[in-house]
């Protein structure tokens, strides 16, 4: 009995230490408590599974005069300018909740997924402005009314180091994400679905990563609108039943091991054209009647020592979509294979290297026979131009 009491005490002490390590933790049970709890340097835990209507909580505070509009307001007594960290913006049919300059903020569900709703269709569900080190986890966000609207679900404006885990963003918001002037945003295992116009807008942002996410049943216009950005990555994502052209790209965007199902895909050619620099690596495009179980294509080309039967090459993986062949006999002889097609394991060779084909794509038939990796470079008609096999590490 004493041992059990001792162990219980130790367990309670460990829990207390863990809670203390998390800093200021606030438990909330309704939308009003959530809005009141917002601020920097804290963890907000939503303890209820009942939907929380953010709009009702905002309207109550606005009616009381305790929630300012805009970034700066004035103290009614001293007339001094005050910069508020929780504000609202007035829109066509309602108000939007804005979280400003709140660093080191975590909002998560205590169990399952908490649901945050907005009533006005012309308001984002949540807006984070100039916030750093933000974590959103296990949260469902969307609008209470379906139909056409002017705002999305989650907007990040001028934020850095944001992580979104295991969330669900749904319409009728025009889009799931608006990410503008942000750096280092990571979205893991999150679904964006049933949005009216787009899937997302990413503008003037860098290092934005989507891992194992699902984008489905969004409609109307170009789904991925990416402009003025660098290092935008989609890895292991499923794009399913997206209506309208998939791409509206003007900058550097990577898709690794992604699956596209029932999507209207704009062609991406070797020059990448006005759509920007998009690379689809080890991706799979499935027909409309494909089964629900998705098996993404994995690369079969292995780095190491390769030969074409006459010369030897050192093959290195420059990044997840490009392999470099460097001749051991003549180090100046280098060429690269770039996987850019979702229709098949198609490759196009960098134009500054040999084997370029400006009439169309060269196809690299990469695979394995027994324990030997091989690559055959074919022209548009399927004729063999060059072949390689791996002979060691």
Taking pLDDT < 50 over at least 5 consecutive residues as the criterion, the unreliable ranges are 1-22, 269-274, 294-299, 339-361
What is the CATH class of the largest domain? Mainly Beta
Level-2 CATH architecture of the largest domain:
3 Solenoid
Structural shape: elongated
Ends apart, CA distance between termini:
61 Å
Largest sheet: 10 strands, parallel
CATH topology (level 3) name of the largest domain: Pectate Lyase C-like
- Strands side by side in the biggest sheet: 1-2-8-11-14-17-20-23-26-28
Our count of helices gives: 3
CATH homologous superfamily assignment of the largest domain: Single-stranded right-handed beta-helix, Pectin lyase-like
Binned, the helix content reads under 10%
Keywords:
elongated, 2 domains, mainly beta, 9-stranded parallel sheet, Pectate Lyase C-like, 10-stranded parallel sheet, 393 residues, disordered N terminus
């Amino acid at each position: 009995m004493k041992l059990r009491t001792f162990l219980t005490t130790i367990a309670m002490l460990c829990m207390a230490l863990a809670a203390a390590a998390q800093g200021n933790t606030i438990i909330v049970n309704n939308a009003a408590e959530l809005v009141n709890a917002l601020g920097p340097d804290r963890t907000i835990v939503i303890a209820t599974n009942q939907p929380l209507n953010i709009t009702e909580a905002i309207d109550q505070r606005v009616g009381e005069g305790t929630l300012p509009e805009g970034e700066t307001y004035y103290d009614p007594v001293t007339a001094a300018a005050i910069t508020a960290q929780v504000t609202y913006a007035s829109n066509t049919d309602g108000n939007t909740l804005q979280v400003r300059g709140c660093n080191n903020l975590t909002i998560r569900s205590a169990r399952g997924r908490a649901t945050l709703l907005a009533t006005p269709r012309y308001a984002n569900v949540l807006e984070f402005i100039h916030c750093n080190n933000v974590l959103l986890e296990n949260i469902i966000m969307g609008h209470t009314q379906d139909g056409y609207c002017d705002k999305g679900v989650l907007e990040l404006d001028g934020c850095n180091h944001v992580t979104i885990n295991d969330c669900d963003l749904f319409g009728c918001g025009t889009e799931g994400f608006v990410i503008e002037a942000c750096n280092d945003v990571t979205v893991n295992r999150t679904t964006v679905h049933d949005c009216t116009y787009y899937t997302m807008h990413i503008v003037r942002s860098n290092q934005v990563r989507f891992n194992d996410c699902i984008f489905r049943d969004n409609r109307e216009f170009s789904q991925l609108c990416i402009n003025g950005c660098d290092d935008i990555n989609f890895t292991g994502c499923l794009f399913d039943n997206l209506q309208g052209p998939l791409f509206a790209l003007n900058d550097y965007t990577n898709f690794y091991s992604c699956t596209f199902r029932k999507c209207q895909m704009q062609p991406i050619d070797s020059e990448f054209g006005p759509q920007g620099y998009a690379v689809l690596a080890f991706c799979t495009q499935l027909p409309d009647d494909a089964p629900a179980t998705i098996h993404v294509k994995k690369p079969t080309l292995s780095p190491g020592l390769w030969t074409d039967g006459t010369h030897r090459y050192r093959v290195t993986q420059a990044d997840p979509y490009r392999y470099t062949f460097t001749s051991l006999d003549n180090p100046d002889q280098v060429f690269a294979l770039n996987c850019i097609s979702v229709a098949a394991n198609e490759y196009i060779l960098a134009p500054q290297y040999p084997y370029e084909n400006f009439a169309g794509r060269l196809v690299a038939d990469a695979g394995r026979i027994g324990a030997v990796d091989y690559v055959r470079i074919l022209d548009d008609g399927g004729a063999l131009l060059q072949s390689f096999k791996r002979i060691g590490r």
